[in-house]
Fold:
Amino acid sequence: NAGVTQTPKFQVLKTGQSMTLQCAQDMNHEYMSWYRQDPGMGLRLIHYSVGAGITDQGEVPNGYNVSRSTTEDFPLRLLSAAPSQTSVYFCASSLWGGHLNEQFFGPGTRLTVL
Amino acid sequence: GNSVTQMEGPVTLSEEAFLTINCTYTATGYPSLFWYVQYPGEGLQLLLKATKADDKGSNKGFEATYRKETTSFHLEKGSVQVSDSAVYFCALSDLQNQGGKLIFGQGTELSVKP
Structure:
């Protein structure tokens, strides 16, 4: 099992550019989520999905879109990048969204917006 | 709303010293509590968890006890090693929280010197 994979590892964008951060898992997990990590703020939830075709907003969804067409993939789209979106992005998955279940994290994507 | 507060870092210890990282929480309902660890350049990994009051989670020499009366989940280790240098995150997950999403503390960086 590869677990949770994310691409790219690093990305530099100019303000206004768009891009998609990729996330995939091979554990047949229903629940997937995106977090951003900023210094001194821990991780904050952007969007999450409880299964294919179902997504919902987290704590900081503005400026980001997601879709979940398959169980395996959960891409995060930045439509018009802003410097405030400079951060490290982590994708996570778990068997289901229940509070007893461990979430597995990908290695992260470090994004810089100039 | 629900929140997690950790002691601020960085924490610097000598090898074989005793470690305590404080974590307190505010939550409605009955959350599960977690400690995640992030080694340099990597994603987060679950270190230990506790799902009800008075439970003790333990792993790799680390322990934390779920104290409902003091709303705390302090992380302890009797003798730290250089390889324990990492960032430690306390987190909670509550069934009332949109299907069990995680709420993280701000993280505590630990540096262990030989």
Notes: The CA atoms of residues 57 and 106 of chain A lie 20 Å apart. The radius of gyration of chain A is 13 Å.
